[in-house]
Amino acid sequence: MHKFITIEGVEGCGKTTQIKLLHAALRAQNIPTLITREPGGCSIADKIRSILLDPSHTHMVPTAELLLYAAARSQHIQEVIRPALEAGKVVICDRFTDATMAYQGYARGLNLKTIEYLAQLACDGIEPGITLWLDLPVGVGVERARQRNHSQGSGAEARFDQESLQFHSRVHQGYAQLHKQNPQRITRIDADAIPSQVTERILKVVKQHLGIGE
User: Where in the sequence is the domain holding 29, given as residue range(s)?
Assistant: First the structure.
């Protein structure tokens, strides 16, 4: 479904800010739009999110992590994403299956074919029409994320922020590989710029994808 847009990137790349700005820009053109996130997006998936991102869960094994993401995604799609798309809305999702490939696959080292199979099972035919990869140097992003958690008191969801720089470098390499493999769907957005410049780049791509004018 071409109206399903996903936003991806390493920690601290500015996804949340850019999603809000994109949402506002589309709404200003009277385009029905829903923003959501993964893991989460609905009550059951949000409860799974609290387990996945709890920094005290350092002993969680990678396979359990993967299965929890798949469970949250299945509920999220059936309860939120599919109904919104069927109602004709543009759905903008903060992370989706590419994040699972990058984090649990390339960074954790889980079998990519297994991840693909679980994605197919959970997604039930729902795929993004376009994915925007906000590409930011890993060190910059991680430092931003840690400063954000410190200033905003969001440490309750800081489990991945606590991972090593090497882990986040593997995540970044995963996104780069996914972009290389899926150039028609995944668009790289240089996120190492001031927010207004990043927004301009995103809007240009999204408007072209949706077939709407300036």
Answer: 4-210
